[in-house]
Amino acid sequence: MSGGPFPSARHRSPVTGHRSRPVRIAITGYGSINALGAGVDAFAAGLREGRCGIGPLTRFSSEGFRTGLAAEVRGLAVPDSVAPGLARGASPTGLLALTAAVEAWHMAGLGTGTGVAVLIGTTTGGMAGGEESYRREFIDRTKRAALRDFVETPVSAVSDLVARALGCGGPRLTISTACSSGANALGVAADWVRSGRVAAALCGGADSLSRMTYSGFNSLQALDAEPCRPFDRNRAGITLGEGAAMFVVEPWETAVERGAPIVGEVVGYGVSADAHHLTQPRPDGAGAVLAMRRALAAAELGPEAIDYINAHGTGTPQNDAVETRAIKQVFGERAYAIPVSSTKSQVGHCLAAGGAIEALASLLAMRGGFVPPTATLVEPDPECDLDYVAGASRPAHLVTVMSSSYGFGGNNTSVVLRGGPAGR
């Protein structure tokens, strides 16, 4: 089973019995905000320069935790093109999603959003806002909380806000499959467009930092006291981040007809479940292997077609070793010739947004002609012996890439992408 109807995308005519041409899924807009800056241009520049957006946590106190680091977004605000009243009371996650969505929307040039679907992956939703209201009323006792303070708390409120701001009257879906949520939103959106359910979709992932997630990962002893070091011998855990990445997807032919900028293509995706443990990956990497193989099968490609892999690469001892083994199982000897990197070394682990942010990083790498680095990798682990692009980016001609995200509970997703015409 694949991650969607991609293997059967050549629909058979009920009259002639002949299969039609597959529907190609064009990406006609994208938007970004994370610790490297607001906007796609800032993200692309940060990736190429190998900058690390990890620094001191300022959003709330980290007293008593294993670390005081995070990859924070600075200066988060309502986008200029959105009426302030429309986003009144919006959660940080909602504002992150809205910022990236507005950029993607304007690039795609869709105009009014009637009929456009909205699919967003998130796990924290408006948790940060609810926490702040609770703190003011019950801890500091400085202000009584109003009902409005909690309206944006449900995870579904994020897609509601984006759809309302852009006038999207199509179907709406919130996906919460842990750290693979944003990648799944992109894959499901491609499914919906390919099947003809919708003419276009706005999709991606968004999550903000919150006390609950920060303290939860601290309790799991999963946070590194230093900036995360994926695939490094001395890696000790993750660094939490926040951000959003959004895409507009539509049929390739439709995009050509309306003269939209085609900046990439969703070629296929695959999903699997480890069915193993709440927080730990399967030691044999079987779930990750299955997701990658399903993505390749959906794209009708062999392992030799992949020019770069954006790894899940969390910086935890277990994940990085298991992911390395899984890549070797799928790609064989060719695994050693494929550059693999973790952009979490630059923007942190952005939870549900991670899969979308990393898919966007992969797309920007193709379009910009470079491979993003594992910026904090200094001393490679002998067990992680692939080409992890340590320290700095490098020039490369990339045609087809894979981005993988593996979430808690064994939610595995791999997406295969191609770049659009060169330049933005």
Word description of this protein:
There is one protein chain. The chain has 424 residues and is of the alpha/beta class. It has one domain (25-411): Peroxisomal Thiolase, Chain A, domain 1 (3-Layer(aba) Sandwich), CATH 3.40.47.10. Helix content is 31%, strand content 18%. It has 12 helices and 15 strands. Strands 1, 2, 5, 6, 7, 8, 9, 10, 11, 14 and 15 form an 11-stranded mixed sheet that branches. A hairpin with a 2-residue loop joins β1 and β2 (37-38). The chain is globular and about 60 Å long. 58% of the residues are buried. The model is unreliable at 1-19 (pLDDT under 50).
CATH superfamily: Thiolase/Chalcone synthase
List segments where confidence is low: pLDDT < 50 over at least 5 consecutive residues. 1-19
Number of helices: 12
Distance linking N and C termini: 35 Å
For this structure, the CATH topology is Peroxisomal Thiolase, Chain A, domain 1
Report the structural category: alpha/beta
Cα-atom radius of gyration = 20 Å
The CATH class designation is Alpha Beta
Overall spatial form: globular
Strand content: 15-25%
Provide the succession of SSEs: EEHEEHEHHHEHEHEHEHEHEHHEEEE
Domains (count): 1
User: In which range does the helix fraction lie?
Assistant: 25-40%
Number of strands: 15
In the CATH hierarchy, the architecture is: 3-Layer(aba) Sandwich
Features of the shown structure:
single chain; 424 residues; alpha/beta; Peroxisomal Thiolase, Chain A, domain 1; 11-stranded mixed beta sheet; two-stranded antiparallel sheet; 12 helices; 15 strands; 31% helix; disordered N terminus
